[in-house]
């Protein structure tokens, strides 16, 4: 009786809920006939839109499983700016030069290159056996579209600079003659074509490219390793427009090509069998979902669903670090490498009282970087005393003669020095000092700033330090050098990561007087002249020395910023991976990796 | 009834338009634009201007909105005819770039932070997934919530009532942020029964939204559905209980009892139907909210749904994306409320709209 009664209630509820939600999903069997018709339609459509049918991967195709931490905004080398996009682009495309494990420039498409006497003309000789390929999305067959030529490089560079492409990173190429003029031209300008022709890049023959610079740049081979200079397949781009990077349409020249890209959901690249070194490439497929949550990604790693916690996905989450280090298995999988980034606190040097260098030095010295790293960050970061992170050409991270007072062995000595400077600056024990510290809204930045606030409060007990935060875009707007000083904080937090591993990308591009990134408003002609001279210098030893002088000026003498730490990459790799981890400005070359396939299968219970 | 529905639909058009304009204008008023920075690096002025021009951002606001609603060719045509309208210089200079065909022709515009992608594509690939999850979660919530609430009301102040209230409050007070990872830990990592995350189906779907009902889909869907559904079921249970308790004290129930009707008939035919009115009221907007995506659940389970666009596009200042997803949400909300009103008339014969 009771059972029957509830059966009826339940039935009513099912019907009610379906009516309320207007959804037929729970009753598919009712619509069998209708559905059959639609199935046929959908299959026909699938062929038309060239979506790859995904067969269940056979267990013997050597596959690297990884998540991507966010939908790559683009796979177009001219347009990419973020590390996820760049990681995938590096698997699909190659440029004139590349980078090795020490972030040094190595040959890639170009076999050799040389600069003219005056350093203004660079000539690159290219190999001719790298071909453009297109993968047929239906059959999975690869089509050879001919060799990559010097003309493709010219096309790629000019496309990045073309104002109609509206590339975010076009300014990296402003070192080329005529590049800035072309990039800033109005698309309807009368001399548009002329400006395009004047850009300093030329194909002398099919395998020789010549670049003409507007000023000497010793770091130029690094620039030709950047994605914005990659050769591009002109025919495919002109045929498909903005959609040319979709799976099925894309034409690539690297060891892998894109087989599937379900936007926001899943990515898959497969080996290019026509690649020059195809025989040496063991990993046939790189694939995985897009997962925006790092702890979820960690759970997938522990369930052996993915092979690594590294780019293009997440590193291990900070809250898990203590557990990972204590775990006998996981701690062996931990991989820590330097990363070309520096975390720093900047001082708005034009805003009183921050225009006082002694005050800035005192604040910079009164940060116990080692304790901050050991107790709060826990990622094996390295205490910083210079702006340019180790691994970049021109870094003085190992040279304690530059601002070594920021990272003394004994913090008590460092603190005494800071207090002495503070007194010299006119604020004994911080008397009369009232400073605003600002960070962009984020739990991690807030914690660091609170710790620094506590250290400063302890060092200068009579001063007042107030913390504020702003949402990221608002924050950057507040800090822009053109924004009014009254709205700016006294101290701001910021980070910088290399676009290419050379001090020019740091000291010159961030802190020259014209830089949009010069939030510290460090406007100094001597410094500008110094970094410009360093950029033009072709002798590496002399360049290194000039950058040391620049760091000396920026950090030790003027202390426009207080470097806090150099970033590290903390990653987890399954033991069955044999990896080659190269400089973090680029994507790791999966084509050179190996997987112990039997071990991976065993771990997954296959 | 038909007249009522038509009138409601007509009325909703200015409402949606006004709402769209509010989002459209407010987003543009927040400091910081989509092209000021790449990552943490500020871009040179020329580059920013190139990008802004590409998206008509240098047009006056009202022209931008006109082109968003009617299409830039219409805006351009209007300016070609009457060149003196303020702001027409800017329009005439760049309307040929072709940014949007206009809402009126079903074009939600072009994404600013995902190059070469349209909002229509983004919605088309993410909405069905959110819809599937949302419908399953709401169905689960109703299937658990209403019986639980009914049971609690009928056995008021007995252990049945206390137990069901306990679970309802538990469901309400454990946030998804906790429940999701907890479910993953137990069922995926410890017991190894289900996959950790991601969604088991991808477009194209049958009829646009029906997923293939295979094990791959179901196994991936169980945990997020449960995580999302239990929270919802708790509030539905509480609501059903309160409403049913009120209804069974009404005179007409006493009359029904006096007539000697069977208890089952009284509850199912007379009491429960009427007590579902508040539930239906809540369920309408709830369904609209849930099927357009839930940020937290999608984030935790790595589901490629629409919820993330509501949050991320604001931080990214992707104006067309936030406007587009809000528009979709608003339309669904209007439809859901209309359905609720129609259901009222069916649940309670005293309500009529003519």
Explained architecture:
The complex is a heterodimer of chains A (606) and B (354). Chain A is an alpha+beta fold. Helices cover 33% and strands 19% of the residues of chain A. Chain A has 20 helices and 22 strands. In chain A, strands 14, 15, 16, 17, 18, 19 and 20 form a seven-stranded mixed sheet that branches. Chain A has a four-stranded mixed sheet with strand order 1-13-12-11, with no helix packed on it. In chain A, helix 12 (357-365) runs antiparallel to helix 14 and helix 18 (525-536) packs antiparallel against helix 19. Mean pLDDT of chain A is 86; it is low at 1-57. With 354 residues, chain B is an all-alpha fold. Chain B has 14 helices and two strands; from the N terminus they run αββααααααααααααα. In chain B, helix 8 (176-190) crosses helix 9. Chain B is globular and about 80 Å long. The interface between A and B is large, with 82 and 80 residues.
Brief sketch in words of this structure:
The complex is a heterodimer of chains A (606) and B (354). Chain A has 606 residues and is an alpha+beta fold.
- The average pLDDT value of chain B, as a whole number, equals 87
Number of helices of chain A: 20
Rg of chain A to the nearest angstrom?
A: 28 Å
Biggest beta sheet attributes of chain A: 7 strands, mixed
Share in helix of chain A: 25-40%
Cα radius of gyration of chain B in angstroms: 25 Å
Low-confidence parts of chain B lasting 5 or more residues at pLDDT below 50? none
Arithmetic mean of pLDDT of chain A: 86
How does the overall form of chain A come out from the CA principal axes? Answer: globular
Strand content of chain A: 15-25%
Shape of chain B: globular
User: Roughly what percent helix of chain B?
Assistant: 55-70%
Instruction: Give the CA-CA distance, first to last residue of chain A.
Output: 50 Å
Total DSSP E strands of chain A: 22
Largest interface, C-beta within 8 A: A-B, 82 and 80 residues
Query: Based on DSSP secondary structure assignment, what is the total number of beta strands of chain B?
Result: 2
N-to-C order of helices and strands of chain B: HEEHHHHHHHHHHHHH
Oligomer: heterodimer
